[in-house]
């Protein structure tokens, strides 16, 4: 994908009018705040609370002044070639102008997830992919088509004559740069008994949240109950790095009944299982001492940040989560040490060369590494003592990140298939072996289209969003298969690593750029085919490769050597 921005021709006068079809008014105002609650009692003004009060106020007042529009002089129709994008200034904000197949389109210029400039992303087959985290949006509707994120782009109507004309919904839409889809209200609960629901969602992570939202966006007005052990409504869990009184302890898929720890029983028609994973506990002497933390909730993150300040912090495990915490604590703790079982971090995921370059970046930021080591004992003395297979470290604070396991033990005797590692195998439609029972998120293995439908587990934030959506659509009888490409990212010391594809089993890594300068792209190959890509300071290469993977076209090893 190439971008070629020409100098604008002589600007011409453009007059703008607002055109709001009545059906659009009705659609966008289905709920007073743009949401219908996915929570237990389905209050008609409920919200998943991922928008600010200002956003809600904007949604409520969206059509109160239909003449509130903007005028602007933009550009000549010949300024853009097919396949080009350009940010254009308008009174009150900017717009992303797109030309595809001779047609002009205009949408919000920022990704509603974290605000990435979409003009630096990738335009392909009627959609634009965010350069930072891979979210995709239709250029025709602005709708989100691949995740992460919950909101869509605002779409602005374009009419071309000899100049380009913009028909904006409202000035507020231009300023907001995001759009919440309309959602159905929950119907009266008088027809439901307390122990019956149409849809039960176990887990309130990204898969559960998007499942609930998708059901409402598609007009589903029946009862939805979401149960979770979290104390908070659905939130942005990467920033760390409900409804029922207790956990589900058993399921009976024959009678379609869930039993909770407090004895409450709930009958369901459709079920989504998306409980996520639980941290793997260290099985060694002293593992229950004080100052040992596992990162699972906002409370965990707050305690780690507070108690590690000016302490000697030890992180057990050089996973992505562990390394992210190490980077965060480097400026807060007195010292930071990382203990890992491999010789470099991320060897299995990113390869030895990339892992060593990242390790060097950490060492330059005062992080010590004790690699090829395993913790054998934790002892309490005046401070805390950590004993590994080769040494003893006298420290005062520990954060343990030794992996996680699927939270699926409650499925024993449920009739739902679970493999030896605790994962739930699902089909392309996210359905388990039991009709009406779906699963999504970190707990599933599913057929990955880009790897010839190989059954894989992809514990990524983006993938969980999509799996929740696929499950919801299939609950409604809209047969939809999962086909998206895994996209992962992390940030450490102000440097972002982006990753697309599924590199499990790679046998070679082709690197372009400079590892020492931390400006590179790494292509992961198996035999003669590229199966994954990672980059640092090389945007938007990962988004470009992700679009190629999505198209089904193969990238050969010779193409990147």
UniProtKB/TrEMBL annotation:
Annotated stretches, region: Disordered: 24-57
InterPro entries the UniProt entry points to: FAD-oxidoreductase/Apoptosis, FAD/NAD-bd_sf, FAD/NAD-binding_dom, FAD/NAD-linked_Rdtase_dimer_sf, Reductase_C, Rieske_2Fe-2S, Rieske_2Fe-2S_sf
Limits of the Rieske domain: 72-167
GO cellular component: mitochondrion
PROSITE patterns recorded: RIESKE
GO molecular function: 2 iron, 2 sulfur cluster binding; metal ion binding; oxidoreductase activity, acting on NAD(P)H
One GO-annotated biological process of the protein: execution phase of apoptosis
One Pfam family of this chain: Reductase_C
Keywords, ordered alphabetically: 2Fe-2S, FAD, Flavoprotein, Iron, Iron-sulfur, Metal-binding, Oxidoreductase
Transmembrane domains' residue ranges: none
SUPFAM superfamilies: FAD/NAD(P)-binding domain, FAD/NAD-linked reductases, dimerisation (C-terminal) domain, ISP domain
PANTHER family: APOPTOSIS-INDUCING FACTOR 1 (PTHR43557), APOPTOSIS-INDUCING FACTOR 3 (PTHR43557:SF8)
Family, similarity comment: Belongs to the FAD-dependent oxidoreductase family.
The protein's name: AIF family member 3
Naturally occurring in which organism (per UniProt): Erpetoichthys calabaricus
Gene: AIFM3
């Amino acid at each position: 994908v190439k971008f070629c921005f020409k100098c604008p021709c002589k600007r011409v006068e453009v007059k703008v009018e607002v055109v709001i079809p009545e059906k659009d008014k009705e659609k966008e105002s289905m709920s007073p705040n743009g949401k219908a609650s996915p929570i237990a009692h389905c209050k008609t003004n409920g919200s998943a609370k991922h928008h600010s009060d200002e956003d809600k106020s904007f949604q409520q007042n969206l059509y109160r002044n239909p003449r509130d529009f903007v005028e602007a002089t933009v550009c000549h129709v010949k300024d853009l070639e097919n396949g080009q994008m350009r940010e254009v200034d308008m009174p009150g904000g900017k717009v992303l102008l797109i030309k595809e197949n001779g047609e002009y389109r205009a949408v919000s210029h920022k990704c509603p997830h974290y605000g990435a400039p979409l003009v630096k992303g990738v335009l392909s087959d009627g959609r634009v992919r965010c350069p930072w985290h891979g979210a995709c949006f239709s250029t025709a509707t602005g709708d989100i088509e691949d995740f992460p994120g919950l909101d869509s782009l605002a779409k602005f109507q374009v009419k071309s004559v000899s100049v380009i004309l913009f028909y904006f919904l409202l000035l507020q839409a231009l300023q907001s740069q995001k759009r919440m889809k309309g959602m159905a209200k929950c119907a009266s609960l008088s027809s439901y008994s307390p122990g019956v629901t149409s849809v039960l969602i176990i887990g309130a992570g990204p898969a559960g949240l998007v499942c609930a939202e998708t059901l409402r966006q598609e007009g589903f007005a029946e009862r939805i109950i979401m149960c979770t052990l979290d104390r908070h409504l659905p939130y942005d869990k990467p920033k760390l790095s409900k409804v029922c009184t207790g956990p589900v302890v058993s399921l009976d898929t024959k009678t379609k009944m869930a039993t909770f720890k407090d004895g409450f029983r709930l009958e369901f028609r459709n079920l989504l299982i998306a409980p996520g994973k639980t941290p793997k506990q260290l099985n060694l002497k002293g593992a229950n001492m004080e100052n040992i933390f596992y990162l699972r909730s906002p409370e965990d993150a707050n305690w780690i940040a507070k108690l590690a300040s000016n302490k000697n912090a030890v992180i057990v495990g050089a996973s992505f989560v562990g390394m992210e915490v190490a980077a965060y604590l480097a400026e807060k703790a007195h010292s930071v040490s990382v203990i890992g079982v491999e010789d470099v971090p991320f060897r299995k995921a990113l390869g030895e060369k990339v892992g060593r370059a990242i390790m060097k970046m950490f060492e330059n930021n005062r992080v010590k590494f004790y690699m090829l080591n395993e913790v054998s004992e934790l002892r309490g003395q005046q401070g805390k003592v950590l004993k590994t297979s080769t040494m003893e470290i006298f420290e005062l604070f520990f954060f343990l990140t030794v992996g996680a396991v699927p939270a699926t033990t409650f499925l024993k005797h449920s009739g739902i298939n679970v493999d030896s590692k605790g994962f739930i195998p699902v089909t392309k439609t996210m359905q388990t072996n039991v009709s009406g029972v779906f699963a999504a998120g970190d707990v599933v293995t599913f057929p990955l289209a880009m790897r010839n439908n190989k059954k894989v587990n992809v514990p990524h934030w983006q993938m969980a969003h999509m799996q929740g959506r696929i499950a919801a659509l299939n609950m409604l009888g809209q047969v939809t298969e999962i086909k998206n490409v895994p996209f992962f990212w992390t940030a450490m010391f102000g440097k972002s690593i982006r990753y697309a594809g599924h590199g499990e089993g790679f046998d070679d890594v082709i690197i372009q750029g400079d590892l020492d300068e931390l400006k590179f792209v790494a292509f992961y190959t198996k035999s003669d085919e590229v199966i994954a890509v990672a980059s640092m300071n090389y945007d938007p290469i990962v988004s470009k490769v992700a679009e190629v993977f999505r198209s089904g076209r193969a990238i050969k090893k010779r193409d990147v050597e």
